[in-house]
Design a protein that fits this description.
The protein is an alpha+beta fold. It has a single domain (about 5-185), classed as Glutaredoxin, CATH 3.40.30. The chain has ten helices and four strands. Strand 3 (about 165) and strand 4 (about 175) form a beta hairpin.
């Protein structure tokens, strides 16, 4: 049976963006099938009792540290990080569009536009510039239930934030700074304590 790496994400998260810049290569290096799992983060947060925009609820010193740390990780991986002026991003439309064509290339393009260039991918004209046609935009409305199901699935397996990962249906691993652990798990190493 083929091994699988589930990647739970929402385009609203800069942490998920950073993970998205690395997860495709990680999958190729380890030979593990990558399964992309979009999540409507705001809905998930409400269901698990988290505030909608955690960075806005942090103390000033922690918020400033977190912003610097995001910049450190972007430099570490050699990727751009541009904070969108429209933050917090409204990602219902791009997530529904993604569900119509759930490919790694599309996910990477949407993340690159939002966090690599600071664009508001919640706007149809920005999605159009990424190759999303009028028919796809119109069809996105019918993906409402699929996004609800995807978010409910994430919650059911223990996801409480993004990025999150699961290797072969195992324990949830949360955070872009855990990618080394994710890679070891993909290579068959046991990383759970005990």
């Amino acid at each position: 049976m083929a091994r699988q790496l589930e990647f739970f994400f929402d385009f609203a998260s800069p942490f998920a963006y950073l993970a998205a810049t690395q997860v495709g290569a990680l999958s190729r290096r380890t030979g593990v099938e990558l399964v992309l799992r979009p999540v409507l983060l705001g809905a998930l947060f409400r269901r698990v009792g988290q505030v909608d925009v955690p960075i806005a609820a942090m103390s000033e010193v922690k918020r400033q540290y977190t912003l610097r740390d995001l910049g450190r990780w972007a430099r570490w991986w050699g990727v751009p990080l541009v904070w969108p002026a429209a933050f917090p991003l409204r990602t219902v439309l791009p997530l529904r569009v993604f569900l119509g064509q759930p490919t790694l290339a599309r996910m990477e393009a949407m993340f690159s536009a939002s966090w690599g260039r600071g664009q508001d991918i919640g706007q149809p004209e920005v999605l159009a510039a990424l190759g999303v046609g009028p028919a796809e935009l119109a069809a996105a409305e019918s993906a409402r239930e699929a996004l609800f199901v995807a978010t409910a699935y994430a919650e059911s397996v223990g996801v409480f934030g993004v990025p999150s990962f699961r290797v072969d249906g195992g324990e949830v691993i949360w955070g872009q700074d855990r990618l080394a652990m994710v890679e070891r798990a993909c290579r068959g190493e046991r990383i759970e304590p005990g």
